[in-house]
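Table S5 (text form). Sequence records supplied for joint modeling of the two-component complex.
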Amino acid sequence: MTTQEVTADIAPAGSRRRVLWQEIVRNRWAYVFISPFYVLFAIFGLFPILFSIYLSFQRWNGYEPMEFVALDNYAFLFGVGAKAFWQSIQNGIILFFLYVPIQTLMAIVVAVILNSRRVRFFRGYRTMIYAPRVTSMVAAGMTFRFMLNAKGGLVNVALGMLGLPAVPWLEHVWWAKVSLCLLVIWGWLGQNMIYMLAGLQTIPYELTEAARVDGANSFQAFFYIILPLLRPAIVFAVLLSIIGSFGLFPEVQALTSGTAGPMRSTLTTLIHVYNVAFNNYRFGRAAAMGYVYFAIVFVLSLLQFKYGSGRQVQR
Amino acid sequence: MTLTSRMRVLGSKVILYGLLTLLSAFMILPFVWMLSTSFKPQEEIFARPPIFISRNMNLDGYRYIIGYDEIGKGGVLRALWNTFLVAFSFTTLSVFLCALGGYGFAKYRFPGRNVLFAFLLGTLVIPPAITMVPTYILVLKLGWIDTYWPLIIPGAANAFGIFYMRQYISTIEDELLDAARIDGCSEFSTFWRVIFPICGPGLTTLGLLFFMGSWNAYLYPSIYLKTPAKWTLPLMQTLMTGPPGFTFYRELMGVAVISVVPLLILFLAFQRQFTEGITAGALQGQ
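The corresponding structure-token record, covering 601 residues in total, follows.
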């Protein structure tokens, strides 16, 4: 900033502009090379986002002419009729607290174990834990739905053989959420483990070794050295999970179908926006929901970033 | 070593391996059950105790989904071809455009570079919930409903890919480019003949991630593809689930196997590239 101001003071404005123009002309190919992104973003990103603001003030079913309704769509979202929308937000928050702590802890523990290289076949374990990540969540969701079938599903049959009662996995409000969490952890643990492994590789080996020489045991080394230094990786993984919890889509559709479980207990916000737009043809309302949803997720992400990254670590 | 400390080491080993084995079993079980069910005769699907390897294995389930004509002639093979066509086209185009964009950012010092790059990264936070509805309307106006264009074009030059290729191309020596220019290469042929060929490993990693994403995509295909003959494998699976009691689980698992196996093979062959690409995504976030 300061250097620019200094040159601005010294060089006459005209010659500065000429130099800038020369630089632009000299690098014209660079602009051509990067242009596809900006052109596509202008058409399929920026335009839809701006159009969506306009749309959120209209009532429109996609066929008849649009009708200007001012803030009605937003007012509706904060009124009594928008129960499903707020339930989907609530579901997102509950799902987040149900699976994220477990998933993150598991990812850290597995990554630390595999990173220590003291385990035989660690590559084999890593492969098996990561394999679900390349799997279509629709295919996985269908398989879980089949395995969790209340009457003849594999899981309940196995529980029965152990003398345990059958569990209404997909029929009960809370169990449906638990089932969804199982599927999400199954699908995303590998990814989170890779994030943690990447974080662990930035921690110098000498550091934990030095602590051990000083008499720290494995647990102390884990809590006082590895965990604090892993904080950026953890914050990043949790941040993605916040966005993920409200945006689960194929997982829910495959596991509990479009009705999203008993009493909409697995309805996520993305599914709700989808239903309002493409099943109920209320495009204006869906557009308004998109913005309210974005605002909520944005605020939650900021909060997490502020309190999650913390100041406890001295740098 | 005393006996007690030796026992403690042994104990922690048992816990360690027990934990890892249990976790791996949880990860593998759905694959096993999917595969096992798809080969079973109908009456063994809900058998008690469960049958993992059937004595009466047969291909009836697969025969049925290959002849399944509710999605137009060709059944599952048609859906497989559609899925491949979309994933292959998207991957080819986007790998090229991302390499080109990455090259532009890595090897030129042009005015506005930092601002443009920050803007590019900023677009990563826009959630689909905002763009989904208006983009659908745009696609409708373009006459692209029920075609593969909206699955291929909008994301072709994407922020993650350009970011990844910029990192990759930054490590290439500038001397190589200067040599090419002295030899009279134009700016584009410098990219196409010098840079692109030596980016092989980076392009493979990126290409695998793109292919995986497109192959498994569900949200946008479910919005844009209306005619069953155009459907991809994930869409075909949701069609095959009926109301309770009317779901053909064996056939459903057959389609699942067909959609999962190609990617598992790719994953086992290119495991390092997959994890490397994900790691790049993680480091970018930090």
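Note: The mean pLDDT of chain B is 88.
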